[in-house]
Amino acid sequence: MEDLWPPPSREVADAMRSLCQRLLTETDALVDAFARPSLVAQNDPALLADASLVEEDRELNRSDLVQWLTANIQQPGRRVEPYVGPRTTAYINDLVSRGIAPDFAGAWRVALGIGWRRWLEECVAHCADPDLLVGVLDVSGKSLAQYALDSVAALREAGLAAAMGNAGADAIALIQLIAGGAPMAEDLAEGRLRYRLARWHVGLVLWVDDPDQVDALDEAIPAARSTAAGRSALVARASATSRWIWLSGPGIPDLHHVEKALATAEEVRAAVGRPGRGLDGFRSSHQDALAAQALIIRLGSDRQFTAYADVELIDALTKDRTGARRFVMNTLGPLAEADTTLRQALLTYVQCGFNTTRAAANLYAHRNTVERRVSRANELSAVKVEDNPTHVAAALLVLDIAPDIVATGSS
Q1: Quick one: which of 40, 125, 172, 298 has the most CB atoms within 10 Å?
Q2: Residue 212 DSSP class
């Protein structure tokens, strides 16, 4: 790329190289600082609602940061060419196919403001010579500002290229409209999607954490569809790492068959919405599945299969991770960090209606063993199960889904 300012002096170049090497070790913390604010600045509800796209957006932030830092280690103070790799291209294609048009310029303004503040702190801390500090800030300011302009332009070019080459955009855009609540005639939607809407539906989100495992994702789709024998199935590519699926039929689809069918695909994770009927059911079950997926990703859970009906309360409790941890600790006290077998016994006991015999059967344990564990767990718990079983069960469920929430604190 054409250089737009003179190269820095050797002293300035050496200082910039050292600063970038230091910050490269803090990549995760830097991305944490500006990923969410820049995402919100893109001002697109459809993007914010999809946890898979949120993860891809975060990865784009990380890629942009690493590109600038490594380029300035190799050639300090020079103009940095944006890197639009295969993963970024796939992400842009997914956005275009779903009619999502984020405000990348707005996102960059926010990220640049946060990143520049951190860069200033680092420069002031490690550039004792005022002349050197001025030199570093002068060159790095030009480099960062131009990098932001070039990056936004590159993303726009990628979006135009994706729009020109996306033959399936109409179908996914229609699905996006329906899922987002836009008014839609049922017969029109059925005709264009070739999927019957006037029946029961269950929405699923299937995804993988690693883009290199996308083959396993696509192999799992036939397994999920096979549970719809005598029913209809609709599959849509939501992102490079996730797929949206709807199963429908005259009766409520059996989620147990879906869970069993997906159990062998260890790399693939699934979130399932509550069943619903008609166009509204198509929409609400999908929204449930998205919420369940967002919960699992938000809490860093390793659960493979999650039904929203099982975690709706936990979703509400854990919107704020710090508040969720406080709730767990205030409710369970020492039990939160005790042996997991004690917590599992108490949770199962509550879920079985305080019936020790049923709890023992579910835990495949002797009744006396379960009684001892329940008694010990209740002794450790700050809130006793007989005083507030709802709070105790909710706190135990939070730990069941995200066992590290106590250890990680407010991170």
Answers
A1: 172
A2: G
Q: Is 100 helix (H, G, I), strand (E, B) or coil?
A: coil
For residue 157, give both structure tokens. 């070019």
107: CATH: 1.10.490
pLDDT tens-digit readout, 286-345 = 999 999 999 998 888 888 999 998 888 888 788 778 888 888 898 999 999 999 999 999
The angle formed by the CA atoms of residues 237, 240 and 241, to the nearest 5 degrees, is 95
pLDDT of 124 strictly over 90: yes
> Average per-residue pLDDT in the chain?
86
Query: Is there a single domain that holds both residue 269 and residue 149?
Result: no
Structural domains counted in the chain = 3
Q: Residue 106: is its pLDDT beyond 70? A: yes
d(CA 323, CA 121): 30
Strand 269-272 relative to strand 305-307, pairing: parallel
The answer, yes or no, to whether residue 167 has pLDDT greater than 50, is: no
| Domain contains 3 | no
In a domain, 5, yes or no: no
Report the pLDDT averaged over residues 188-198: 81
3-class DSSP state for residue 235? strand
So what's the pLDDT on residue 188? 80
Closest among 88, 211, 206 to 151, alpha carbons compared: 88
What residues contact residue 186 under an 8 Å CB cut-off, 6+ apart?
A: 197, 198, 278, 279
Residue 85 lies in domain: 10-164
Residue 204 makes CB contacts below 8 A (sequence gap 6+) with 224, 244, 245, 246, 247, 258, 270, 271, 272, 273, 289
Same domain, 250 and 153: no
Q: Which residues, listed in sequence order, are joined to residue 236 by a DSSP beta bridge?
A: 244
